[in-house]
Design goal:
Elements (H helix, E strand, L loop, with lengths): L2 H10 L34 H33 L7 H16 L1 H21 L4 H32 L2
Length: about 160
């Protein structure tokens, strides 16, 4: 009975064959505290990307101008709207719908900016730091416009009890 555990250990031992080296591996020679050199790709933003992002931000800004006019009309009508289902309430609802539709250029620009980043990741397998920063900056600006529009629409909807 006492020999069974020893026999089990003997089965794990192999005789002969190449043994792994105990020498340090190449990766063990790298000091993990060493500073990493700058980005591998520190080129400026690609000009076609910068131009397209500028177009999309301009589209969102122009759309915001149209949205503001439509939202002002909806706010004016909502503030004077009567009870639900009355003629003045329906007119305010229609103006609200027009304001929602006027938001389309901003939403489209936001989606197109996201698509630019996603397509670059898929086609190139990554983004240069400058390109990524430009996409993030444009996306943040258009997202801020989109959020302001959404908040304004939500306030109009609350006034109308929708």
């Amino acid at each position: 009975m006492a020999l069974l555990p020893v026999a089990g250990l003997a089965a794990c031992a192999t005789v002969g064959g190449p043994f792994p080296s105990l020498q340090p591996r190449a990766a063990e020679n790298i000091d993990p505290r060493a500073p990493v050199a700058g980005p591998a790709n520190d080129r400026p933003v690609r000009s076609e990307l910068a131009n397209r992002l500028a177009e999309l931000v301009a589209q969102a800004r122009e759309g915001d101008g149209a949205f503001r006019a439509a939202a002002e009309q909806a706010e004016r009508l909502a503030s004077s709207a009567g009870a639900a289902q009355t003629e003045s309430w329906v007119a305010a609802q229609e103006a609200l719908s027009a304001a929602v539709a006027a938001r389309a250029p901003t939403a489209r620009a936001l989606g197109d900016i996201d698509a630019l980043g996603a397509n670059a990741l898929q086609m190139q397998g990554g983004l240069a730091p400058a390109d990524l920063a430009a996409i993030r900056s444009a996306g943040a600006e258009v997202f801020a416009i989109d959020q302001r529009q959404a908040e304004r629409l939500a306030a109009i909807q609350r006034r109308l009890g929708v």
